Amino acid sequence: MILDAVRRKFINKLRRDKESTKNESFEFSKIKSVGCIIDLDKYENPNHLISEFKQLGLSGAEFKIIGFSRKNSKQKEDTLIPVFYKNEVGIKGKLKGENLQNFVDGRYDVLINYFAEDVFEMKLVSLMVKASITAGFPTVDQKCNDLILNCEYTNVKQFFEILKRYLKVIKK
Hints:
- This protein has a single domain (2-169), classed as Rossmann fold, CATH 3.40.50.
- It is 37% helix and 20% strand.
- The chain has helices at residues 2-21, 46-54, 74-77, 98-105, 120-128, 156-169; strands at 33-39, 62-69, 83-85, 107-114, 130-136, 147-148.
- A six-stranded parallel sheet has the order 3-2-1-4-5-6, sandwiched between helices.
- Helix 1 packs parallel to helix 5 (120-128).
- The radius of gyration is 15 Å and the shape is globular.
- The mean pLDDT is 81.
């Protein structure tokens, strides 16, 4: 109970800090880096995300993906993408894993929050990442995303089609 209150307070502080510093320009043709946070417990085929990303038509853009899992699992570690676990994120945002720290230290033109559940660790990482635009699902705290794409979590193709359509229209 108290732990949840501390977590909510910290998330709200991060959200306010991020909103006050967002003033970057954005243009689809100038996208050079895209980051993606994915819930590996719910979506077990991250390679499909990578292939759909390539369909966006962003030649030369770097796509960096990190997966989240609630439980340490050898099977998750065998994937080609870095994975972070619940125990690698402290209550006040202290990051313990090297993969996670490298992802958060990166700067992205677009951050894709590919998770459909409101999980503290994924929201926290999303708020800590420096990105011009964030996109995600309506089932997650809507203040974490600039673009809220209303589609099925399992329909990756539709998600990327909608994302591409909106990113081409937006000029911040």
